[in-house]
Write a structure and sequence with these properties.
GO terms for molecular function: 16S rRNA (guanine(966)-N(2))-methyltransferase activity. This protein is an alpha/beta fold. The chain is built from five helices and seven strands.
Amino acid sequence: MRVVAGSAKSLKLKTIEGMETRPTQDRIKETLFNMIQYDIAGCTFLDLFSGSGGIGIEALSRGAKQAYFVEKAKPALRCIRENLRYTKLDDRAQVMAVDVITAVRQLEAKKITFDYIFMDPPYNKGFEDEVLAVLNDSTICTPDTVVIVESSLETEISDFEELKVSRVKKYKTNKHTFLMKTQED
C-alpha cells in the first residue's frame, strides 16, 4: 500500500498483519480520490475505522487542512501513528483511540464539522447503518459534508431521514456509497 498522490506520493505505508483490517487497494483509493480531488485541498477529513490510516493520509497528502483518524485497535493505532510520522503529515492529524460512536460524540462536543467523512467498517457486520444513523442526527455532518462508505457489494446502504444516497461506485469486490444531508428549506 502506498500514497497515490500529493506531498507524500509513492511513499509505502505500513499495514497491520492478519485479517483484522483490509487496506483499500491503491487502484480503488486512486479512483475514489480522483472523484473528489477538486474538493480535498483545505478540507477537514474524518477517517472512521481507520485501520492503517491510508485514506486519511491520502487526504492529507493531497492537501487536506486536517484529518482525524478514529480507531480503537492498538496495533492499528501504532500503525497509523508510524505512517503519519513517516509521511511527515502528523502535524495536521488527530488520532482518536476510541470507538466510532464515542468519537462522534467527542467531536460534537468540540463543535467540529467535516467536509468529508469516510468510513470503512468491517464488512457485513451492520456497522454501516449504526454509524450512519448517528451521523444523520450529528452536528459534525452538515449539508456540505460528503459521507463516503466503503462496503462489500452485498451491503445495502439506505437513505436516512436527512442523510441520502447521492452516488454509488462499484468495483469488482466492494463499493463506495456517497451520502449527503438534505438541505433544509
